[in-house]
Amino acid sequence: MSEIGQPPDTIDNRRVARGLGSTILGRLGAVIEIVAQPLYVVMFGLAGYGLYAVLWAAVNLIENIFDLGMTSAMQRTVPQSASHADAAEALRTALLFGVGPCILVATGISLSADQIAPLLNVAAEDQALVTPAIRLFVWTLPLWALVEITTSALRARMVFGPEIRLRIMWEQMMRLGFAALFFAMGMGLRGLFIAHIISLTLTAILCVRLLQRYYQFAELRRGKLWGKTAQDTVRAGLAILPSNVIARLFGDSPALILNLLLPGAAGARAAGLFTIARKLSSVVQLVRIAFVYVMAPLAASAEKADRAQVKAIYSYALRLVLAIAFPLAAVLAAGRSSLLSLFGDQAQVAQAAVAILLFARAIEALLGISVPVLQVISAYRHQLTASLIGVLGALVAAWLLVGRIDPLTGITLAMSFGIVVMAGIPMLQLMINDGLHPFDRRFPAVAMTVMAISLGAGAAAWLASGLPDPAAIPAVVFIAAAAIWASLRFALPFDDRASLGKVGRKMRLVPAGLADS
């Protein structure tokens, strides 16, 4: 136990690559979730799926407000903890301040379900379900806060792999399995809500059990309740809270806004369509999330040792994000009509929204690699600037667009503009305030090669989308994988590819024997 979670003396590209590989595997639950969405639409209809999407979006948004930033706070305080007692103090503080308020809020919402239900626009056949669904589903709020904080605590210990089992085997596959079972039993849309809360309960139990391997739970009962580490954790959480809330607003509020803008079943369907577009774009967002999860604790440890290490991993991460995110976005955008066919013909109206979100997420992934670096090395006051300007940009864009074009495309464009602005400003802040930027002499050549490969792969995917759907979808997936491989192989410098170790050799990115295991 004494060695667990202790950072190495040197934080280098290999350390980033190892953490990144485990984290991407852990986040593959998001891919399984994407695959599950067409099945939910088939089983429960687009309007029913839209109601589910609205309630889950509301839970995510409320959780990000009332967890008081504790998930992000642990990325700053735990890696810099001097002892296991300090780490346990940070964990105890995060649980008290992160889960406690969510329990209180869930209680209030459950008691007020009758007053909240009329605010939601749903299909007539789902109207009677709304109030009981709110009363039941709101209890995912503290469960989700617990899952988010415990998995964040694992990442803060630089333990990235365990999310593989939690995110794939339980959170997603169990949910899909229970939903299909309850649908077969004739429970209808209610079965989907029950399946969600059961799978999340199991995930929370497993998270707590897993956490015992990396934290000394006995220390949770000892020490000061309000010591220095606790104070630092709360201060860090409250400092990053506005940014976290605003980031979540960009992801979840459009579904809520569309539901409120359009009456009846149209509001539920619009929310469902936006959620479909967002789920498809989350394949690209997965790249950013994986890097953010890894970069935050590693940058905090590197900053503690040497600022030069931060600059090195910052530049490396930027090149790797560029090589993965842009070819992926180009191929998926070009083949979007085939992908949307999985959700039925009614989903084709979301084509523009899908393309907009895919490229917005690719740009966000590239620029946003600066966000975790800013969070752990800069003053707290610098972290709110990007969020405020991003929200202002999104509001201005929404004011200019909504009413002039269809609501789905207008809201998506406005949100995407805000996302890009919010991702780009931290990079400027690091350059101006800290003299830190990720652009070295190798970046222009990498960028030009990646763009050329992305254009070629996008053209190939556009041609493939003209095939019948059973052939087009596998072709688009194959082209995406081939484009990412070509981008990694031909755009990245040799030392970047060699840092991928066994993965790089197995993918033939470097000759066998030239990369360390």
From TrEMBL:
Subcellular location: Cell membrane
Keyword annotations: Cell membrane, Membrane, Transmembrane, Transmembrane helix
Protein name, entry field: Polysaccharide biosynthesis protein
Membrane-crossing residue ranges in chain numbering: 49-69, 90-113, 133-156, 168-187, 256-277, 313-334, 354-377, 384-402, 408-431, 443-465, 471-492
InterPro entries attached to this UniProt entry: Poly_Biosynth_Transport, Polysacc_synth
Membrane topology (UniProt): Multi-pass membrane protein
Gene Ontology terms: cellular component: plasma membrane
Species the sequence originates in: Qipengyuania marisflavi
Lineage summary: Bacteria, Pseudomonadati, Pseudomonadota, Alphaproteobacteria, Sphingomonadales
